Write a sequence for this structure.
């Protein structure tokens, strides 16, 4: 589990940050498309003559990422989810609602945009969509990599916030994805039945309207 590597103060004392701080040292945050990290420092840096504040993140891979304090919104940096949200995420994972794109370019663009938002809900949408697609066809190299990445991001965040092993969370996620495929079939069947009922009701309504029109013409002719 990620923890700050050294004891640090919870807020800067001598920084020229120029922006309101949204996070404190020690906070667990999600950096879009990279995963979970811990804020280890909040510091000033001068780049090309401009001084501004940066969050220094230590990622799970032990790499360090610098995020400008005043660019958090554009980057999509966010706090990790709370334990109270995990149950809803598993419900979302298994609900059977999957976006279906026929066009490869449109699908890849939409999924890439979602991966960049940093929202775990968007990442789950990508995971469900590509997992479903992989059941019926071989994914391209880029989509296979995106599927693996989305799975990693979901599993690693849940594992961290629940303090559970990656292996245990991975099993739960895979079971949820299996439920998703089953529930999708059920949803498609329900949609098919609903369309048939709507079409039948429409035909009955048209038939009734035609009968009334015929009766009106007969009455007018007599």
């Amino acid at each position: 589990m990620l923890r700050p590597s050294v004891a640090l103060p919870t807020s800067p004392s001598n920084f020229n940050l120029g922006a309101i701080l949204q996070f404190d040292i020690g906070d667990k945050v999600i950096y879009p498309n990279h995963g979970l990290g811990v804020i280890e420092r909040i510091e000033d840096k001068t780049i090309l003559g401009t001084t501004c504040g940066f969050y220094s993140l230590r990622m799970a891979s032990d790499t360090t990422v610098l995020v400008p304090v005043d660019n958090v919104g554009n980057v999509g940096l966010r706090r990790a989810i709370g334990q109270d949200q995990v149950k809803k995420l598993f419900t979302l994972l298994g609900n059977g609602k999957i976006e279906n794109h026929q066009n490869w370019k449109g699908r890849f663009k939409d999924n890439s945009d979602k991966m960049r938002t940093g929202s775990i809900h968007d990442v789950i949408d990508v995971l469900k969509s590509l997992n479903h697609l992989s059941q019926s066809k071989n994914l391209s190299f880029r989509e296979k990599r995106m599927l693996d990445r989305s799975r990693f991001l979901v599993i690693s965040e849940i594992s961290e916030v629940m303090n559970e092993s990656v292996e245990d969370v991975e099993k739960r996620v895979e079971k949820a994805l299996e439920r998703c495929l089953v529930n999708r079939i059920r949803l498609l069947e329900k949609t098919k039945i609903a369309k048939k009922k709507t079409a039948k009701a429409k035909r009955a309504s048209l038939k009734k309207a035609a009968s009334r029109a015929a009766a009106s013409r007969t009455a007018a002719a007599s």
User: Anything to note?
Assistant: The longest strand covers residues 35-47. The chain has six helices and five strands.
